[in-house]
Amino acid sequence: MLLQTEQEILERQLISKYLIPIGIVIIVLFILYRLFKILQVLYASRFSKPLFTHLYVKRNILNETQQAILKKEYEFYNKLKDSQQLHFEHRVAVFINENKFIGKQELVVTDHMKVIVAATATMLTFGFKKHRLDLIDTVIIYPKVYYSSINEAYHKGETNPKMKAIVFSWEDFNHGYKIGNDNLNLGIHEFGHAIHLNAKTSKDISSHIFNKGFNELITYLQSNENVRKNLLASKYFRTYAFTNHFEFFAVLLENFIETPNEFRSQFPELYRYMRQMLNFKFAGY
Fold first, then answer.
1. At what angle do helices 186-201 and 205-223 cross, to 10 degrees?
2. Structure confidence by residue, pLDDT tens digits, 76-114
3. What φ, ψ does residue 186 adopt, rounded to 5°?
4. pTM of the predicted model, to two decimals?
5. Residues near 153 by Cβ (< 8 Å), separated by ≥ 6?
6. For residues 247 and 93, is the Cβ–Cβ distance under 8 A?
7. Continuous H helices in the chain
8. Are strands 165-169 and 138-142 parallel, antiparallel or unpaired?
9. Is the model more confident about 6 or about 263?
């Protein structure tokens, strides 16, 4: 049995050899982490984009069927560079793996549906560092327009934060997806609501950039009466955009994605704000 003094010596040796260095490492790592967070905010405030966007410890992979659907069906994906396509595939796979897909009224959710819905969410958040939408963990799909007991009305789609769900009529989702230049796209519209609502309650750097850009956009419109008049007179944005701020962004997003050249030509400042909010600097945008 060791003497008490020998035990004390052994304990001091253990503390000096292991515990103190480990404690110092933990403190240094914490300080570096906090400095990095501050650097991120400063960089985002200065350049209106994340310090980095795509950095993954492990890349998720689509199965062969899902990858074939993406390559055949999703034009935006095919416009990306090869390295960007790998990032896009990873994010589509993450969305499919982390969200429940529920078919209603006997609708069977197929791989095609999953890929197209996930790709739409991925496209809109592709410029975000944090691409997961904490607001959503379930995708509910009806065959056609459905009756909502919440407000006793028929809907084509909705974003429901309380249920953590996004809901679509597949007929209308598919119609909006297939016709890519009429500025009517249910998937883009509802995911636009999800992104907007998610940014309101999140503190990640991409939400910070989004909120800052949206506030600047609204301030710009409030300060420029002529621009507001031109918005109404142009008929380029459907009148539903002027219901409230959430509908305004969702409609602008549909136009931004589907007819970017016309958007940029008619309202260059609004286009710049949208591009900045989404960090959307790829695929020709």
1. 110
2. 999 999 999 999 999 999 999 999 999 999 999 999 999
3. -60, -45
4. 0.87
5. 147
6. no
7. 4-14, 20-47, 64-73, 75-79, 82-98, 111-124, 170-178, 186-201, 205-223, 225-234, 245-258, 260-266, 268-278
8. parallel
9. 263
For 220-276, write each residue's pLDDT tens digit.
999 999 999 999 999 999 999 999 999 999 999 999 999 999 999 999 999 999 999
Q: Which residues pair with 140 in a beta bridge?
A: 102, 167
| Cα-based distances in Å from 265 to 90, 136, 189 | 33, 34, 22
Contact 138, 100 (CB under 8 A): yes
Q: Report phi then psi at 107, rounded to 5.
A: -75, 135
Q: What span, in angstroms and rounded, lies between the C-alpha atoms of 87 and 55?
A: 9
Per the CB < 8 A criterion, the answer to whether 131 and 92 are in contact is no
Residues 15-48: pLDDT tens digits? Answer: 666 666 777 777 777 776 676 677 766 766 777 7
Radius of gyration of the chain (CA): 24
Residue owning tokens 């994906």: 77
Q: How far is CA 235 from the centre of its chain?
A: 28
Taken as a whole, the chain contains a residue count of 285
Euclidean distance between CA atoms 173 and 116, whole angstroms:
10
Query: Dihedral of the CA atoms 145, 119, 164, 279 (nearest 10)?
Result: -120
**Cα(133)–Cα(92) distance, integer angstroms:** 13
Tokens of 253: 């997003």
Which residue(s) pair with 121 in the sheet? none
Please say whether the beta carbons of 280 and 274 come within 8 A: yes
Bridge partners of residue 160, in order along the sequence: 165
